[in-house]
Amino acid sequence: MIFIMKKSILFSLASLIAFGSVLHSCKPKKTGQIAVDDDAAKQVYVAPGHYDEYYDFVSGGFSGQVAVYGIPSGRLLKVIPVFSQNGENGYGYDENTKSMLNTSFGFVPWDDSHHTQLSETDAMYDGRWLFINANNTPRIARIDLKSFRTAEIIELPNTSGNHASPFITCNTEYIVAGTRFSVPADYENGDVPIKDYKEKFRGHISYIKVDKNTGGLSLDFQLALPPFNYDLSHSGKNASADWSFFTCYNTEEAHSLLEVNASHNDKDYILAINWKKAAEHAAKGDFDWKPCKYAHNVMHEDTEQATSEILNKVKVIDTRKYNDFLYLIPCPKSPHGVDVDPSGEYIVGNGKLSANLPVFSFTKIQDAIKNHQFDGKVDGINVIKYESALHGEVQSPGLGSLHTEFDADGNAYTSFFISSEIVKWRLKDCQIEDRIPTYYSIGHLSVLGADTKKPYGKYMVAYNKITKDCFLPTGPELCQAAQLYDISGKKMRLILEFPTIGEPHYASAIAADMLKPNMMYFTRLADNHNPYKISTAQQARVERHGNRVDIYMAAIRSRLVPDNIEGIRLGDEVYFHVTNIEQEWDIPHGFTVKGNNNAEILVMPGETCTLKWIPNRVGILPFYCTDFCSALHQEMQGYARVSPKGSNTPLSFTIDDKLPSQFAATKPTTQSAAAPTTHKRK
């Protein structure tokens, strides 16, 4: 019987994949499919000197970063370093930011970032912070949207594969995160046979509290749950605002050959959690303190230096004891995304192996709970009857549904990976309105503002995995792609295609006008409290403390001060503390020294950054500014003399005591660093 079941499942999976391949191969060639209107170019054209309407924050996938694009132009505006070192500006290499990549496993210079979330107030974007997950070494980062910089990273214990993350509640009270891989908890003996999966493994979901004023992150509590795979999540809005929803697959609790052994059950689950009740349990003491290790890293805005702390315990609520706040809802089959519409009433489960797309009603879920319409329990958790929670099903919409987004007019848009398309359908009656191909194998999609209760609804972006005929070929490794659609009319229209960095997963877009008024443009020197700051070139100096040499350097167009340094010896640790004493927007200075074995540093106006250098040879080593900053940029250089260990060469440096005025700190061009010099292109 088991053999027949496995054979049947293998056949059905193979048939589904084969059918998807046939469907894909039967498509007309891409060039014949794209019927772009004559005015499409006008819709996406942003003239030189003009700005895009939206910032689109796109996860970088295996790059570990966040990419920022302008919409509708598709122009790449910035790559924000988050979980991976970045040689372009020294993030993760320099002494200021290196601690941001500390973990309980040590220094980890890379990760896999999947999902972005913008902070919200009353289920509307407030423009304060962006959050993103690290999938491999489980972490969550907070990015400050005043500076577009990573401000904080917190590691999650008892978690492996932080995929269902970092989904916020509608007032950013909590970030919610779930483990993709159930594993033995950190507080248990992890050296167990893998075959003991069902008895020894557990899943954990984390609730990270967000300080409403500073954005500071703290791990409030975790839920210990059955050993499923917790794939994705979203929180509710309006009536469902106190609830979080997670997709669960591998409810078979298999541990090998998951494409077969985790596909036996006709339905898996959506886990519905009343997070407010869970928080009440935590506040009442219905938890156990469990030992663990996790890092909490903070970039301090006033000193521009990061610190890292290892924490050693966490509150864990055992849901076998306390489970009056969570319920399981059957959902076909191997669900991936779970998405909540703007009203908070409809919850869509996207089953990767399901022929139909189920839509659940929050009202019906509450009625089912009230009337005890359950179909047994799993690990003490009540299972709501499928029909009792169901609003309706979208019949045969496509193959391989992954994610659903919403506009403000009651329409939903679902991505289908195997059939490479987006299907538009109505929430009220689950009827299909339109479908359009993507090129190719779409994963996530983003209707701008869809995470809020009032989506913008003008544009939709598809993030595609396969791009073999989209752009000029670049050898075996190709970029992935985004495609922009106009959804303002009844029919979806493809209007732009552009390449992306890394592997885009989810993205979050916000109106540019919400961020521009609060943007930080440069740091006033008076507000720079870095202990190694200097405010004028005359304050530049070199100091020795044993085998440590500290160089306090000023960078100003077009000179590095001091520019000739002697008396450094082999065996010394040399720290270049470079302060950019410019007080004008968009005048960065870079710095590096020959043979430096980490990266350059890129120092913004008014800021101080430290580069550590351990010279490993005797000689004269040049250093220079790496960012072309003026007509005399090439003259912005100097020399470091390195002598043998034990040499009696005295420490010395050159600095003109009568520096001309152009080498003194420039005066701020405005009274506030929050506003740039007025500049409009004619």
TrEMBL record:
Keyword Secreted attached: no
A GO cellular-component term linked to this record: cell envelope
Main location: other
Example of a GO MF term: metal ion binding
Record keywords: Copper, Metal-binding, Signal
Biased composition (Polar residues): 663-675
Gene3D superfamilies registered for this protein in UniProt: Cupredoxins - blue copper proteins, YVTN repeat-like/Quinoprotein amine dehydrogenase
Superkingdom of the organism of origin: Bacteria
Region (Disordered): 662-682
Record flagged with keyword S-adenosyl-L-methionine: no
Subcellular location: Cell envelope
InterPro entries: Cupredoxin, N2O_reductase_N, Nitrous_oxide_Rdtase_Sec-dep, Nos_propeller, NosZ/Cyto_c_oxidase_sub2, WD40/YVTN_repeat-like_dom_sf
Signal sequence, start to end: 1-20
A matching Pfam family: nos_propeller
NCBIfam families recorded: nitrous_NosZ_Gp (TIGR04246)
Database matches in PANTHER family: CYTOCHROME C OXIDASE SUBUNIT II, NITROUS-OXIDE REDUCTASE
Entry protein name: Cytochrome C oxidase, subunit II, periplasmic domain protein
